[in-house]
Amino acid sequence: MSQPSMRDRMIACAAQVVARRGVPGTSFAEVLLLTGASRGSIYHHFPGGKQELIEAALDWFADQLENALNELRASTPAAMLEQLVLLWRNKLLSNDCEAGCAIAAAVLSNAGMQLDEVNRLAFARLHAAVVRAMKRSGMAAPEEFVMLFLSTVQGAIVLCRAEMQIDPYDIAMAQLQRLFALDSASAATATR
User: Which of 76, 97, 149, 157 is most solvent-facing, going by the fewest CB within 10 Å?
Assistant: First the structure.
């Protein structure tokens, strides 16, 4: 497998920085330092400046999440929900709850950049990928549940980052899974 290009490395690095510090806290200087890229590579790879880099970073982040979601397989909706919960939990633990979702961070810290459409499309892709995952597991119409799931995940991520610990996520997901089980049991009883 070939090594990622310098442009690709800069994009991935920028996505990680956005997830930690938001858009205003993401600087070319830090991306250059972390990737070892030369100063001249900035406008060579990103002639549109920071706007272009941030847009590429958000698209890359959405690609990574979408790819991970497309790989999930489960035989029941409850088992898929467990995998989804673990996917985000592992991402939080991998960075000691210092970074969350780059897309959410960009929404919350836009700082006057024109990112509304990029953010909307990234969240739409994320929503669609989770819907597809739930449908693969046998859930008939998961759109509304997925909106609840993503809203709960994003809120829990914010709390984890504020507290610098995983407890808020675990509590929120345990409650969501409990409600999901109750709703599934109720639906099964109603169809009998």
Answer: 76
List, for residues 10-47, the tens digit of each pLDDT value.
999 999 999 999 999 999 999 999 999 998 888 899 99
Give residue 156's identity as a one-letter amino acid code: A
Helix (H, G, I), strand (E, B) or coil at 27: coil
**Structural element, H or E, at residue 182:** helix 167-190
Q: Are 109 and 22 spatial neighbours (Cβ–Cβ below 8 Å)?
A: yes
Angle formed at CA 16 by CA 14 and CA 22, multiple of 5 degrees: 80
**What pTM was estimated for this model as a whole?**
0.88
How many alpha carbons fall within 13 Å on the CB side of residue 64? 18
CA nearest to 148, candidates 171, 164, 130: 130
Sign of CA dihedral 100, 102, 107, 110: positive
